[in-house]
Specification:
By secondary structure, the protein is an alpha/beta fold. It contains 11 helices and 18 strands. Its cofactor is Zn(2+).
């Protein structure tokens, strides 16, 4: 039996993660075996390691849902992909394909959905089994390192372009200058927003500087300045047309409600497992749309790969560190300390 080294979360308790020798996955007729080249470390991964998430993981479980690689082997019923093809893949490792949600291109919300690195084995390893239906070909002018970050770009695209309303002349606020926040800035810029304000906190100084070079027109450190008052002092004084909350915690939702203009929209991407702890009546009094956003779909992946191939989005500046997967713990520390913007890992033998 052929084996590989993988980063495995082996129990639903804090710290229960280690490098293990595990079998190389067997594939079915409609799957491919992808030889992983690069894996992106998501901000959720350290939270899962510390068991700070609001969902149970199907342990033991290999981490990793952002990746790109090369087709090593294709199942007998796979069409359109062959050994040697450069690919990336959606996070939806499984879904039923039959329910109303699946039939209306909302399969990312299917009750039977299982995500890589959350419910089924992911890509913190040398190989990963991927259903051919969620594969996407990487254009020749995009490196596999860059392609491994297609997934967070798709989150930003789906949340801003598909699930929010951004028009030329609009003021957009992005809370949280992490990778998703940075990519939401880029999407808002491509949609024509005239003011794009990024809000961070203490420790985000370098990230806020990067946001200004990535498309933001203003950055605000909310630990030192009154972000809501600054936003409401701009333009007509009513606040932002759209607030995108990539942080997700209770204080950022409160800030969103204060900063958004009457009739505006808050798009909440970030998770916040703790109770909110304050009234939501502002949603009513300001007639605000509060919209949750989760994940992405096949069409969004294709659009994002076009953006990358046409060089309308450059992911390279976001990649600040590259490490082998046996240094996964260091990668988590770099993310949590905000020393890194984005870490990519590489498999080991």
């Amino acid at each position: 039996m052929e084996t590989m080294k993988a980063v495995v979360k082996f129990d639903n308790v804090a710290g229960a993660t280690e490098i293990r020798e595990v079998p190389v996955p067997d594939i079915g007729d409609e799957d491919v075996l992808v030889r992983v080249e690069y894996i992106g470390v998501c901000g959720t991964d350290p939270h899962m390691h510390k068991n700070l998430v609001s969902f149970k993981m199907n342990v033991p479980l290999i981490f990793g849902h952002e990746f790109a690689g090369v087709v090593e082997k294709a199942g007998s019923k796979v069409r359109g992909y062959k050994e040697g093809d450069r690919v990336t893949a959606e996070t939806h490792a499984d879904y039923c394909g039959e329910c109303e949600l699946c039939r209306t291109n909302r399969y990312h919300l299917c009750r039977e959905r299982k995500g890589f690195g959350f419910h089924t084995d992911g890509a913190f390893a040398k190989y990963v089994k991927v259903p051919a239906r969620i594969l996407h070909r990487v254009p020749d002018n995009i490196s596999l390192k860059e392609a491994s970050l297609t997934e967070p770009l798709c989150v930003a695209y789906k949340s801003v372009v598909c699930n929010s309303s951004v028009n030329p002349g609009d003021t957009v606020v992005v809370i949280g200058p992490g990778p998703i926040g940075m990519l939401c800035v880029k999407m808002a810029q491509l949609c024509g927003a005239s003011e794009i304000i990024v809000i961070g906190t203490e420790g985000d100084e370098e990230r806020l500087k990067m946001a200004l070079s990535y498309g933001a027109t203003m950055s605000v450190n909310s630990s030192r300045e009154d972000a809501a008052q600054i936003i409401k002092s701009m333009g007509d004084g009513y606040g932002a047309d759209l607030v995108i909350d990539t942080a997700g915690v209770s204080p950022t939702l409160a800030l969103s409600l204060e900063a958004v203009r009457p009739g505006g929209q808050i798009t909440k991407i970030g998770w916040g497992p703790k109770p909110v702890g304050f009234t939501l009546d502002t949603i009513i009094s300001k007639s605000v749309t509060l919209k949750g956003h989760f994940s992405h779909t096949w069409d969004v992946w294709e659009k994002c790969l076009v953006l990358l191939s046409k060089q309308q989005v450059d992911l390279k500046p976001l990649i600040t560190h590259e490490l082998p997967i046996d240094q996964w713990e260091k990668s988590f520390e770099l993310i949590e300390s905000k020393e890194a913007m984005k870490v990519v890992l590489t498999p080991i033998d």
